[in-house]
Amino acid sequence: MATTQASGMPFVVSTSLDKPDPNLRKFIRKHVMMGKNRGKTRPTKKKEKKVMGLSEMSHPAKDLTKSSSNTTFIVKRHPIPPKVGSELSTVHFADDVDLSTVAVVLRFSSIAKQALFPLETCISFDQGDKKQWIEPLAFDAAYLHTMIFTTHDYFNLLLRRTPSGETSPHFFKTLHILRERLLCEGDGRSKVSILTASVVLALAGHALLMNEYVSARHHMEGLRKIIDLRGGIATFRGSSKLLIEILRCDLGMAFYTGSKPLFSDILSSEPFLQYPEPSPTSSSCKVDNLLSGMPNELATTWRVMEGFCSLINLAAKSTTRIPKEMFLDAMASVMYRLLGTEFHTNSTNELLRLGLLAFSSSVFLQWKYMRMSYPYFSAMYKDCLTRAVALDMPPQLQLWFLVVGAISVFTEADDEWLKPWLRVSMNLCKIELWIDMKCILSSFMWIDLVHDELGKGVFDSASLLTITL
């Protein structure tokens, strides 16, 4: 191997199979790389792009203050695409309606049991009850429109909003569809179906809520005909929730106007029920003395209701529930029997009957968030109370009658005569604290879950009366 130079250009002549010596290898490498790196600059290190998630993009103004030409917004991809439209936009309903109106119906369905039943936490309603309440919205147009105008008017009354007439089209659409269904000469099963009965009942209840008694009575008479065509009230035993609502509306109308109930024949299949005996107290002995002189049916009805109260108080304390059929049986057994009985106006028996009816209405008929008014019964109970002043009655029992009226059927219009009388009774019973008053009330009949808050309000308002007298 030899190296030669000609005109400044080196030549390497290799004639051997041996590896070149290190100096020669260095020379060759230098010659090969000559001019390769001229005019090139080393690339600068790129800055990492700043990735901003969706949470950081929620304050764009704040981000813009950070300068930067180098900041790049990259939206992270998520496996679930953003929601398009409302949750009801893909649901098919029985008729074309504004989805916002149906949303109110569904909102009411989520609170319906709590709103309509003060004892809801102690009653075992089937899980399927709500499903049966919602599903018909998809296939029964009359039911759909009925639920829309009744629930909207419920919230209007609850929130004391002035109705703007937005539910009127649904009301008239319900009447139109229902009229066509009942006049149709085709399959008669739809005329007497459970859903048709539910629509008619809702119309009656709505009319009663709006103080339209004539319409309410008309609808209830129509419902009575439908039930008779189905074979009678006993055929609704399989639909306990609907039967409860039918009887509540029927009883409510009797309280509102004094009319005769349409479904009192339910008693033919309702024997007197047996409930746990309440714990004896000193006041119970006084009640026993009163009951001993009563007609047997009235005394037994008192005991049945007293036992039901004990059962509910026990269920509330133990966080258990009673079957809804037991609620139904107690309501029918007590209230229809009391409404079907009457005594002399000035008698203790009549006062006990009306007092027990007033108490029962607070348990079975009143709603939790909206108090129903019963002008006919309220006036009759007040008249009986004033006539009973001359009766030889323990002050504790008199106090119970007054408080029961205050928490069940009397209104603010009755405060002028009711509160002074309550104050006198409290003084006679030597009541200073609410716990003293509750002890007396509980010795007769009382459900803590339903009556404590209302009773405490009555006590507070009557106690304040001593300051202004």
Features:
469 residues; single chain; elongated; two-stranded parallel sheet; 19 helices; mainly alpha; two-stranded antiparallel ribbon
Give a verbal description of the structure.
It is a single chain. With 469 residues, the protein is mainly α. The protein contains 19 helices and four strands. The chain has a two-stranded antiparallel ribbon. α6 (141-158) runs parallel beside α8 (194-209), α8 runs antiparallel to α9 (213-229) and α13 runs antiparallel to α14. The longest helix is centred in the middle third of the chain and has 23 residues, at 296-318. The protein is elongated, with a radius of gyration of 40 Å. It starts with a strand and ends with a helix. Residues 49-78 have low confidence and may be disordered.
Label the structural class: mainly alpha
Distance between the termini: 134 Å
Unreliable runs: 49-78
Spell the H/E element sequence: EEHHHHEHHHHHHHHEHHHHHHH
Strand numbers in spatial order across the main sheet = 1-2
Give a short account of the largest sheet: 2 strands, antiparallel
- Tell me roughly what share of residues is in helical segments: 55-70%
Task: Give a count of the beta strands, DSSP E runs of length 2 or more.
Answer: 4
Q: How many DSSP H or I helices? A: 19
The coarse silhouette is: elongated
Radius of gyration: 40 Å
